[in-house]
Amino acid sequence: MRSLAALDAYMLPYRHGTHSGWLELCYELGVPVVAPMIGHWLDQHDEPGAVAGFDPGSIESLAATISQILPHRGNIPRGAIKAQRRARRNAERAAIATAHAHVYESALAAAALAHIGAVREAGATAPT
Question: CB 17: neighbour CB atoms within 10 A?
Fold first, then answer.
C-alpha cells in the first residue's frame, strides 16, 4: 500500500469495465488516476484532479492527460487531501445512516399502527 500511496499518479490498464476498486483505493490514498475514457471510471469521482481520462487509442491523449493531472494537485500535501476525502466520506456515511434510521423508524411505526388497528378490528368483531 505504501508503494501505491507514493505514486505521482496511477494509470488504469483496462480496455473495458465499469467500476474500479483500484481507482477507489487510489482516491482514498490521494493518488490521482489516469483512466481510459471507456466504462464509467471517470464518473466514480467528480473531484477535480482525482481522475482524468484519455483516449485509449492515442499516446498523445495519454501524454496530455498525464501532463494535465500531475500539476492539478498543486501544493496541497497528500495528507491533507486524504484527510479532506476521509472527512467527506465520513459525512456521507453519517448522512446515509441517518436516512436509513428514518426509513426503518417510519416502517416500524407504520407496522405498529397496522398491528394495533388489526387487533382493535379483531376485538370488535370477536364473539362475546
Answer: 14
Residues 72 and 30 sit within 8 Å (Cβ to Cβ): no
| C-alpha separations of 86 from 48, 73, 128 in Å | 16, 17, 64
Where b means 16+ CB within 10 Å and e means fewer, 74-100 reads eeeeeeebbeebeeeeeeeeeeeeeee
Q: pTM to 2 decimals?
A: 0.66
Q: Which grid cell is 69? A: 493531472
User: CA 16 to CA 37: how far, in whole Å?
Assistant: 10
Contact 61, 52 (CB under 8 A): no
Rg of the chain taking only CA atoms, in angstroms: 25
Q: How confident is the model at residue 75 (pLDDT cuts 50, 70, 90)?
A: low
Task: Decide which of 120 and 108 is more confident.
Answer: 108
Please provide the size of the chain in residues: 128
